[in-house]
Amino acid sequence: MLACCEVHRAAELAMATLVISHLLVQLVKRTVGRGRPSKAGDLSAAIREPDRFSFPSGHATASLSVVLPYAMVFPLWAGPLLLLALLVGFSRIRLGVHYPSDVLVGQLIAIGTAGGVLAAF
């Protein structure tokens, strides 16, 4: 954030998007209270689950929340950055800690938050 110009702007936008989206994710997680796939007996998780709530995916939200502002400021990097964020979401499903809808809604929260932050700045 101490760098000049475009890097500084991208960092500020990414931080604002990440903080706001994380607050929204935690609010939805505690309100909905959906359990993880391993708790429903659907499958077993390949890693230790961070908490008991599955919906929405905080990791998928966070990765896209950081990537979107950088992709807007540095359009040449948009493709690789978006691919990386989508892979984070896919990994959460593959590891058995989220349902596909958890990841999708998390990504939608990130998109909506990024749009709001970009419009406000």
Note the main attributes of this structure.
mainly alpha; elongated; 121 residues
Describe the model:
There is one protein chain. The chain has about 120 residues and is an all-alpha fold. The chain has a domain at about 55-120. The chain contains 4 helices and no strands. The chain has helices at about 5-30, 60-75, 80-95, 100-120. The radius of gyration is 15 Å and the shape is elongated. The protein starts with a helix and ends with a helix. The model has no long low-confidence stretch (mean pLDDT about 90).
Summarize the model shown.
This protein has helices at residues 5-32, 58-73, 78-94, 100-120.
| Beginning-to-end CA distance, first to last residue | 16 Å
What is the number of E strands? 0
Provide the β-strand percentage band: under 5%
Rg, please?
15 Å
Main beta sheet: strand number and arrangement?
none
Shape: elongated
**Element pattern in H and E:** HHHH
Secondary-structure-based class equals: mainly alpha
Topology:
Elements: H1 5-32, H2 58-73, H3 78-94, H4 100-120
Helix pairs in contact: 1-2, 1-4, 2-3, 2-4, 3-4
